Amino acid sequence: MTETSSLGNLWAVVPAGGAGTRLWPLSRARSPKFLHDLSGSGRTLLQATGDRLTPLVGDRLLVVTGAAHQDAVRGQLEDLPDDHVVAEPSPRDSMAAIGLAAAMIEREDPEAVLGSFAADHVIADAEAFRECVREAADVARTGLLVTIGIEPARPSTAFGYIHLGDRLPGFPTAHAVAEFVEKPDAERARQYVASGEYRWNAGMFVARASVLLDLLAVEHPDLAAGLREIAAEPDRLEEIWPGLTKIAIDHAVAEPAAAAGKVAVVPGGFGWEDIGDFAALADLLPDAGAGVKVLGDAGRVLSRDSSGLVVTDTGRTVALLGVEDVVVVDTGDALLVTTTAHAQDVKAVVEAVKSSGRPDLT
Amino acid sequence: MTETSSLGNLWAVVPAGGAGTRLWPLSRARSPKFLHDLSGSGRTLLQATGDRLTPLVGDRLLVVTGAAHQDAVRGQLEDLPDDHVVAEPSPRDSMAAIGLAAAMIEREDPEAVLGSFAADHVIADAEAFRECVREAADVARTGLLVTIGIEPARPSTAFGYIHLGDRLPGFPTAHAVAEFVEKPDAERARQYVASGEYRWNAGMFVARASVLLDLLAVEHPDLAAGLREIAAEPDRLEEIWPGLTKIAIDHAVAEPAAAAGKVAVVPGGFGWEDIGDFAALADLLPDAGAGVKVLGDAGRVLSRDSSGLVVTDTGRTVALLGVEDVVVVDTGDALLVTTTAHAQDVKAVVEAVKSSGRPDLT
Fold first, then answer.
1. Is the Cβ pair A322, B341 closer than 8 Å?
2. Which of A62, A109, B32, B240 could covalently link to A101 via disulfide, CB atoms 3.0 to 4.6 Å apart?
3. Is the CB of residue A278 less than 8 Å from the CB of residue A286?
4. Residue A169 and residue A248 in one domain
5. How far is B336 from chain A (nearest CA, A)?
6. Are residues B215 and B285 in the same domain?
């Protein structure tokens, strides 16, 4: 690949965590959403993430996941060397996960640039995505922390936003980051999108591994030191890991660095979605006819005067009659019936299932 | 039992047929609704029918059912002699089914009185029901065809009605039947119920076996003769049965006899229901809490901001979130999601399932 020469020191880090509780009972703690094919493409979200990144990084890709999921991850990414799947002994939030990978990469190549991309996002135009990452890597080589700012498809209140600052001279599209802002209310979201100055924060970060860890060391020196110690002496993982600070990468590094003028953003318009709930899943899937979207074998779904979403992996016939905007999720041991309007509340059902004495179903 | 002396020649005939298509996928052609426990009582509708009749008739009870269901019927009515389950070689409507039983009973006891009661009705007050049957049997001994007229619980358009004629002297509550009337429209149903002169026709008939067959012989002499031939020579069942006229008992006997002034009615107020669809089933079941009725293990049904009915026999957990008046029927190979308002249209779904290449599910 011609790009390999310029991107020869680019690594991808894929944190694969999070249960996807609002996608219960499809997604479970023991089988989280990144292990599922949610687009009907035949590839799971994790596999699609690998497919998208491999043209950029080859096998310079590290997946950081829970110990419980490492075998499933290795099984799904057959071509990845086994030691490129890093198992966290316990969840310690995104900074520890990405930071551990950064420290491992830094030891491998002190000049290396890494890009961190979640395992459970959906991207429509993979080549446009890679073009953004290439520019972000070029910017990152100047020593900045770089994020990718997603062109907002709607005034969503489900994501944080990135306020664009001045254009960065010498790069095709990059800007400085004026500020990261939290998830807005509906009115503020409308203002953000109308202004044209805001992008969705999808949690994608590109930086030299050493820059990321040095930025971390400013605010959380113990955490940065702990991660570098593990990378130097992998046998000490179990000993050091439980004492590491639990913090998200946004709070640990991105926000303080933005305040210090050290963060850039490359705007991206490549059809990004975080399938956070069944309403988002329904939006994403193609219409199977008769107004009902189906994830699974559409030939076994019969609908009449109905609309919504059926997710089925049981081999059963599913018949809908006179139900509008319904969500039916049909799995072997649990069935959910709700509506797209209640998609965000599925979390509460999972809590109820847990308290009902069936934590095994969650 | 003190009643045995006066009712010693009373027989019960239980036609057990009809797939209960509007209760799909709970009720199937191969497992029709009378074989199911629809009240959550622990007894199937057929068993409850037997329980209700045994105090009146002991084992003078004949069940007439399809050949495909005879083993299931015998399995559910363990105390009934095997030859009291009569298998129809093919469905030939209610007159042939009840008439065959009548002919068999007539040979056993020429003075016998029979009462015919469907296998899939629900009756709340069994003793009040039996009291009606006792009076009906007394009236039947005078040579009349007697029906039981159900006190209407509401102006239903789903049932035919019986127009009461004059009181019959010498009996506690019996009337002549002025007329049987077909299922009315909503306005007419309201008028019927408001007048106090109409009762629901539940298809219950009580008569001497010989009176029933003689009435039949007036309008359909070949049918009456054929049934009596089979009773005389049971080996000829397969030969004669296919040539018998297919007709409902109402048209074959009850309506002509009423026109001739030969039918009486005993009014009954014992909480009768024909569970014709899931809306009727939902009405019948006790509230399990949280607004959702459950047929099955209510401990595995979780609901939040929901109402309606869950029928489940799979052992799966069923979670409802924000769905009103929903009907969820969860079986091993088919799942139905609809609403109580669409309960009558379930038949159309069954047709669609059949045409979809899965007649095995219907």
1. yes
2. A62
3. no
4. yes
5. 5
6. no
Among B274, B293, B314, the domain boundary falls at B274
Name B133's Cβ contacts closer than 8 Å, sequence gap at least 6. B10, B56, B115, B148, B206
Closest residue to A334, CB basis, from B299, B316, B334? B316
Instruction: Please say if the pLDDT value at position A1 is more than 70.
Output: no
Out of A214, A247, A274, pick the residue that ends a domain. Answer: A274
Unique residue bearing structure tokens 């399990």: B288
How far the first Cα of chain A sits from its last, in Å, is: 44
Considering the domain architecture, whether residues A214 and A173 belong to the same structural domain is answered as yes
Retrieve residue B334's tokens. 């088919």
- Count of domains in chain A? 2
pLDDT digits (tens, 9 = 90+) for B33-48: 999 999 888 999 999 9
Of A302, A335, A338, the CB nearest to B349: A302
B352, A316: Cβ pair inside 8 Å?
Answer: no
Both A248 and A318 in a single domain?
A: no
pLDDT class of B117 with cuts at 50, 70, 90? very high
B277 and chain A in contact, CB less than 8 A: no
Q: Which residues of B touch A305 (CB under 8 A)?
A: 342
Q: List the single residue in A with minimal CA-CA distance to B328.
A: A337
Q: Is the CB of A323 less than 8 angstroms away from the CB of B335?
A: no
| Residue ranges making up the domain that contains A86 | 2-274
pTM, 2 dp: 0.86
Please report the number of interchain residue pairs, chain A to chain B, with beta-carbon separation below 8 angstroms.
120
Asked if pLDDT for residue B18 goes beyond 80, the answer is no
Nearest to A349 among B304, B316, B346 (CB): B304
pLDDT at B4 over 50: no
Residue B218, classified by CB atoms within 10 Å of its CB into exposed (0-12), middle (13-18) or buried (19+), is: middle
Write down the pLDDT at residue B30: 87
Residue of A nearest to B343 (CA): A321
Q: Note the ipTM here.
A: 0.86
For residues B237 and B292, state if they share a domain: no
Q: Is A277 in CB contact (< 8 Å) with chain B? A: no
